[in-house]
Structures are given as structure tokens and as C-alpha cells.
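Input C-alpha cells:
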């Protein structure tokens, strides 16, 4: 579609629906579409996306274009995305979303449930609420099930799980993916070196990481891992050198 048609489509379906559509694409494909929108139009669409999805798209754009889009955004959302962009895309920090629920330990159970109800539509998941102190250091985690089953007069600090599975923001994204799978979790908190809660990574965020990791393992087993260049540009000698070991083994 032409740039004008894309802008018209975004206007007709609404920024939120258009953002959902972009989130389903490969980030590189979504970035190509965003590039054909004006900075203001791109800002509106990216604001409607989940922060982690928006960052995946922005990281594929030219830095000058990213700065222009961020200028057009609401200051709070722009700062959120700038912070996420400060982490390399292959790290846990680059994969996390800041849309999580955090509670102070002295909040009562009934108050916590009311708070969760208010923010449910804005956060990534409400299955877990993270308990932090006044300096945002991670103290524990409480599940929605635990909140519902606990007496309303008890505090979150009394019922929270203190042994929290967490990952550093600088850790490789595959470490976060493995933690989610091995521990059977729906989300894992991301913290800095001082244990301050920065964001969360949910299981759907790492599904593509796990798929890619398994694909690479299977390709390696079959000797068919991708080449460093397109087949159309590979010389016969290069192809022979890459495959001869496996061919000899198969013979």
C-alpha cells in the first residue's frame, strides 16, 4: 500500500487495532510499515502497542527516525520506550515490558484486589503481583489465586512468596526463556544489580525465542543450519566446504 493508504487504514481501523496488527508481524516487517507513516502517525500507533512490542519495532528503525517518533509521543510513554531501548535487544532488559503490577507490603488483600481490578486492562498480566519496598526493590511475589483465597484483612507482605525467581536485565534473553519453562511460570520479573524491579517478561514474549532455539538445535543436528549469506550469492566452493563434513559422515 502507498503511504497515504496506510495512514488512511490506520485512521479507519483505529490506532489500537492497527497496533495489534503490527504486533502480529515480524518486527522487521512492522518497521517497514511504520517507516511509511509520518512521525505523528507512527507515534499514535506505537503508543497503542504494548511497550515491549513497540520497542521491537523501534529497534529496527533508523536512530534519527526513532528520535523524531519519540518527540511526537506523550512524555511518559516516550521515557518508558527510551529506557527499554537502552538495553540490547537480545537481553532480558530488551525483552521486558514495564506494564506490571507492583504493591507495597503493607497493602491489605482487599485493597490489592481493588487495585488489580483498576489496572487489569493496562498491564501485561494480573496473574502475579510483585511486592516492592519504597525504593522499588523486589521483596516478593503474590499470585492472584493467593489473593483471592486469603482473608481480606491480611497484608500482602504476610502472604507473599519471598523466594522469587528473577532475572537480571543484562542477562541473555534465552536465560529468561529457560527460567520460564523450567519453573513453569507465566512471567518472570526483571531486576537491576540492586534488585530494583524494572519490568517483567511473560511466556508469550519468549515463545519466539524458544522456537528459534529449538529450530537451531534441529538444524544443527541435520547439518542444515542457515548460511551466513543468501544461497544465490554463495559460491560452489563455499557450499561444498559448509556441507562436505556432513555428507562424508552420511556416506
Amino acid at each position: 500500500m502507498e503511504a497515504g493508504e496506510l495512514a488512511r487504514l490506520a485512521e479507519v481501523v483505529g490506532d489500537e487495532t492497527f497496533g495489534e496488527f503490527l504486533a502480529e508481524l515480524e518486527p522487521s516487517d512492522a518497521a517497514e510499515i511504520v517507516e511509511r507513516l509520518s512521525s505523528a502517525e507512527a507515534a499514535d500507533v506505537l503508543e497503542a502497542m504494548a511497550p515491549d512490542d513497540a520497542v521491537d519495532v523501534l529497534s529496527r528503525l533508523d536512530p534519527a527516525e526513532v528520535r523524531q517518533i519519540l518527540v511526537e509521543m506523550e512524555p511518559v510513554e516516550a521515557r518508558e520506550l527510551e529506557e527499554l531501548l537502552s538495553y540490547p535487544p537480545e537481553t532480558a532488559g530488551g525483552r521486558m515490558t514495564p506494564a506490571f503490577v507492583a504493591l507495597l507490603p503493607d497493602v491489605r488483600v482487599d485493597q490489592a484486589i481493588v487495585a488489580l481490578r483498576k489496572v487489569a486492562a493496562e498491564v501485561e498480566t494480573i496473574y502475579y503481583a510483585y511486592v516492592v519496598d519504597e525504593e522499588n526493590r523486589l521483596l516478593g511475589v503474590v499470585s492472584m489465586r493467593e489473593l483471592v483465597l486469603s482473608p481480606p484483612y491480611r497484608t500482602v507482605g504476610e502472604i507473599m512468596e519471598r523466594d522469587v525467581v528473577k532475572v537480571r536485565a543484562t542477562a541473555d534473553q534465552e536465560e529468561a526463556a529457560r527460567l520460564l519453562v523450567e519453573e513453569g511460570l507465566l512471567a518472570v520479573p526483571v531486576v537491576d544489580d540492586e534488585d530494583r524491579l524494572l519490568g517483567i517478561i511473560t511466556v508469550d514474549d519468549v515463545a519466539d525465542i524458544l522456537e528459534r532455539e529449538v529450530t537451531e538445535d534441529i538444524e544443527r543436528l541435520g547439518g542444515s543450519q542457515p548460511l551466513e549469506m543468501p544461497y544465490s550469492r554463495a559460491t560452489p566452493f563455499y557450499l561444498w566446504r559448509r556441507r562436505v563434513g556432513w555428507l562424508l559422515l552420511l556416506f
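The domain at 3-86 is CATH 1.25.60.10 (MgtE N-terminal fold). The chain has 14 helices and six strands.
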